[in-house]
Specification:
- There is one protein chain.
- It contains 18 helices and 13 strands.
- With about 475 residues, the protein is α/β, with parallel strands linked by helices.
- It folds into three domains: about 270 residues, Spore Coat Polysaccharide Biosynthesis Protein SpsA, Chain A, CATH 3.90.550.10; about 80 residues, no CATH class; about 120 residues, Spore Coat Polysaccharide Biosynthesis Protein SpsA, Chain A.
Length: about 475
């Protein structure tokens, strides 16, 4: 005779899951479950646009499924919201989440019921996972199969992991419906409520385990629960592994209050301490980046497949990004970075800020002695002579990366003349930049000082519109200045 208290509701969340749903469902249909354990299968489809639902119906008819089957069609929503809707429709207290690609052993549903009845305070249950891969695994897979891909043993033996590990993996994850509802009654609000990406699934489960622990529930791992997890080619890509590490960084900051809390009788999640010393944490993470080679930090956007340092950099960048996101307003965030970082560090910190043209802080520019500034004093004598002078300057024979600039210094220059000068200069394709300084003064000293203050380099060459220089003039001038200095 069925015992409702031992019943299991298996929930499969699908979204464009046609690749793996048939095998997953087949392994559920052939489950060996004693008659005293009632169970059901609930498909919570999250707005699939492929043939997922058609394959489910075809598979159910093909293998003559006899277990009660419910299909719930949901709008495109987050992982947690989809699971909430499915649990509301669940008949039994023991909830088993089976993801597409999870191939459960034939006694899995039976053992979930047995293990759940072991401890009245048991809130969540995890399993042993084996790898199922089409083709060859990447060389680096074994290094991260347990920590990142969550395969193998979660613990040495069947045991409570409440205060040792603190959470279990998302594949084959089981929870009590009563425990799920109890945390929501205590004002639980997920940090990942609207997340839809694949790597967020483990984040949701990890957060739920910590929440259950805080309210006095225990978290268990059972080696009797075994399943195979299918990994596709995209799952085994280096980019996906980097995304996993990025999500781990997000988890560490988002769940910081849970991780560092010893609370086990929490009555209201709004009272959970979540105070972080932002400046201290940011400084610590930033200093830990110093042990990596600078070229790797700058090459963050490149693949560098197989390089462990890149994964750790991804993890630390992700934590920094989350911490800085908590600092408002934007300028306060940048002032903090200015205090802990050097100007050269901003070449890779732009990846943390997510601004490709990141230039803060704007340090006061100092003249660079390695270049030369050509200051052309225009006294409004002749526009044609000015053009000839600029043309002779633009024909200088210099290396492409030679640091130099041209500053046109004048008084009350007409705007149309300025526009024409800029257009002519652009047509020359000269490597030097052109600045026009227009001061409302006829005092040569004032004009000269204005040009010097705005010059980038310490080495200066003075010309006027009557000077037409040879193509090697700037190169020889630069060389002569440095000889004299030495």
């Amino acid at each position: 005779m069925p015992v409702d208290g031992a019943g299991v509701s298996v929930i499969i969340n699908t979204q464009n899951s046609e690749e793996h749903i048939e095998r997953t469902l087949r392994h559920l249909i052939i489950q060996k479950v004693p008659k005293y354990i009632p169970w059901e299968i609930i498909i919570a489809d999250n707005a699939s646009k492929d043939n997922t639902l058609k394959i489910i119906s075809k598979t159910w008819r093909k293998y003559k499924g006899k277990t009660p089957l419910k299909i719930i069609r949901l709008p495109d929503t987050g992982i947690l919201e989809a699971r909430n809707q499915a649990i509301e429709n669940a008949t039994y207290n023991f909830i088993l989440f089976c993801n597409p690609g999870n191939l459960l052993n034939r006694n899995y549903v039976h053992m979930v019921s047995v293990n759940m009845m072991r401890d009245i305070n048991l809130g969540a249950l995890g399993s042993y996972t084996e790898v199922l891969v089409k083709g060859e695994k990447p060389e680096w897979f074994e290094d991260w199969s347990n920590y990142c891909y969550q395969t193998g043993e979660q613990y040495e033996y069947t045991s409570a992991v409440t205060w040792t590990k603190g959470f279990v993996w998302s594949s084959g994850f089981a929870i009590k419906k009563d425990a799920w509802k109890s945390i929501y009654q205590k004002n639980f609000k997920s940090k990942f409520e609207k997340r839809k990406n694949e790597t967020a699934d483990q984040s949701v489960v990890e957060e739920l385990c910590y929440a259950l622990r805080a309210t006095g529930n225990s978290i268990w791992y059972s080696i009797d629960l075994k399943l195979n997890q299918i990994f596709s080619e995209s799952d085994l890509s280096w980019e996906h592994l980097r995304n996993i590490w990025k999500q781990k960084g997000v988890n560490f900051i988002a769940l910081y209050g849970y991780i560092h809390s010893k609370e086990h009788e929490l009555e209201d999640f709004r009272k959970l301490p979540d105070k972080k010393d932002l400046r201290k944490l940011i400084t610590y993470i930033f200093r830990s980046l110093k042990r990596f080679k600078r070229w790797k930090l700058k090459a963050y956007n490149e693949s560098l497949t197989g390089d462990t340092d890149v994964l750790l950099i991804e993890y630390k960048f992700s934590k920094l990004r989350e911490l800085l996101g908590e600092i408002k307003p934007y300028n306060r965030k940048l002032r903090l970075l200015r205090r802990i970082a050097r100007k050269s560090d901003f070449k890779y910190l732009k990846y943390v800020i997510d601004k490709p043209c990141f230039r803060f802080p704007q340090y006061r520019k100092r003249n660079d002695k390695r270049g030369i500034s050509v200051i052309l004093n225009y006294e409004n004598t002749s526009y044609n002579l000015l053009n000839r002078c600029l043309e002779s300057i633009s024909r200088q024979i210099l290396p492409e990366d030679f640091p130099w600039e041209v500053i046109l210094n004048g008084s009350n220059i007409d705007e149309n003349v300025k526009s024409e000068i800029y257009r002519r200069w652009e047509r020359t394709n000269c490597s030097a930049s052109l600045k026009i300084i227009d001061e409302n003064s006829k005092n040569n000293g004032i004009l000269r000082n204005a040009a010097i203050n705005k010059s980038r380099y310490d080495n200066l060459v003075y010309l006027n519109e009557l000077d037409f220089i040879n193509p090697d003039f700037v190169r020889i001038a630069f060389k002569s200045i440095h000889k004299i200095k030495k």
